[in-house]
Amino acid sequence: MAASLLRLHFHDCFVKGCDASILLDNSGSIISEKRSNPNRNSARGFEVIDEIKSALEKECPKTVSCADILALAARDSTVLTGGPTWKVPLGRRDSKGASLSGSNNNIPAPNNTFQTILTKFKLQGLDIVDLVALSVYFMLNQEPNQKAIALVDDFRIAGLDVDWLQERLNDMLDAKRLIGQSSTLKERIDKSNQVIKEKKRELQVYEPQLSCFEKK
Q: Active site includes 9?
């Protein structure tokens, strides 16, 4: 669920800012972002936000926005699963509208090239470090083999250094907040590192052969 809540927050922020517009259902002039290609049949965690909101309304009605709840839930669930923490400014106002087109166009898609995804991140004021951090977190919350291979391929296509990617994985492994708190996360980082090493060895074997064909 932690990865789902982080993804929900990520998809919310990439459209109209972190304003909980992703939580809105169809109503009147509102066409829900839940119907967009990136969210339809894949966005999860709405019921968790609803439960938190319901509990808060009983204790302090009309005080905490859904946007703040979503931001805090994404952060705290990440921390609880052994991930990093970050400061969350509070006081967001909930959106009264949604943007289906923004959701379809602004959120990185699985079939986007690495460069397209990086461009979409930059439009949000984010950089390659943010992209790798988010990609690695999702990768480590799933079976890492194919995700790690895909990430290596994306780096190569974009002309980026695969060694830099491994350094970031090792940084995560060395972080004191991960060691001893999440053996599963440590195992997945180790496994991802091994997959990347094997992929790099394959590239060292085949790339010289490919370059010979290119010269001909």
A: no
